[in-house]
Amino acid sequence: MAIVESIVADLGGSFSAEHGIGLDKRGSMARRKDAVALDVMRAIKAALDPQGIMNPGKVLP
Predict the structure, then answer these.
(1) Given this model, what pLDDT does residue 49 score?
(2) What is the four-CA torsion angle of 44, 49, 50, 53, rounded to 10 degrees?
C-alpha cells in the first residue's frame, strides 16, 4: 500500500478521495497527511467531542 501511495503522491494524487477515511486508511492518513493538519483535526475533534464518545478511535490516527 505504501508503494502505491508513493506513486500516487508523485503523480500529484491523494491517498483518499472518499468523504471519510475509515479504518483501512488510518495508517495512510498518518503517513501522508501533514502533521500540522492532523494536529488541527485533532483539536477540532477534541472541541466538538471532548469526552471522545463519537466514533472513538476511528477518525484520526
Answers:
(1) 94
(2) -140
Residue type, 61: P
C-alpha cell at 27: 495508517
What is the rounded CA–CA span in Å between residue 36 and residue 11?
23
pLDDT for 24-34, tens place per residue?
A: 888 888 888 88
Q: Which residue has the cell 493538519?
A: 37
Distant-in-sequence, close-in-space partners of 38: CB < 8 Å, separation ≥ 6: 29, 30, 60, 61
The model's confidence at residue 51, banded by pLDDT at 50, 70 and 90, is very high
